[in-house]
Amino acid sequence: MRFLADENFNGKLLAGLRAALPDLDVVRVQDTDKVASSDPELLAWAAEQGL
């Protein structure tokens, strides 16, 4: 399962999750070209990407 962490997701929490669950597949919005997209746009893109 893949997850999308949007710009408002706490970075420290994400780092902790990744440390505890090294196989966790998380895409950060900040690492894509979707920064500042509206929620509906982001949700549609995430669905297309299988997130």
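(the above was protein one; protein two follows)
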Amino acid sequence: MPDASYDVYKNLSSYKRLEELIGDGETENLYLECKAPSIPRLNKELQVHLAKSVSGFSNTTGGIVIYGISTTKHSHSGLDVLTQIEPLGNVQKFEQQIHRTIPTLSTPPILNFHTKTIKKKASDSKG
């Protein structure tokens, strides 16, 4: 995950940083996708979204999928602007589902990926 996407990934180290992305008006782009699922489970719809994102990122310099941030389409630019943190319940289990699923989404399998969980407080089960 070199270049801009890796810099963003490295800097995503705290809940405060997620709030800053939203406050700065960050948008989804070539290396950043966000999704706010209503349930903390990697259902078929989320698997399809993840497959498209990971496949696209693997053909470029990489990218980041953030689960738990919603977006709103800007009326003039058409860009999806990050708007709100929506923490996922049982985030550790969701992360395990992602680890098990990504290698199954493409042929050849994508094996070089990283995940991280960001919580408001370390003791939280949501993140």
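Reviewer note on protein two: Residues 44-58 form the longest helix (15 residues).
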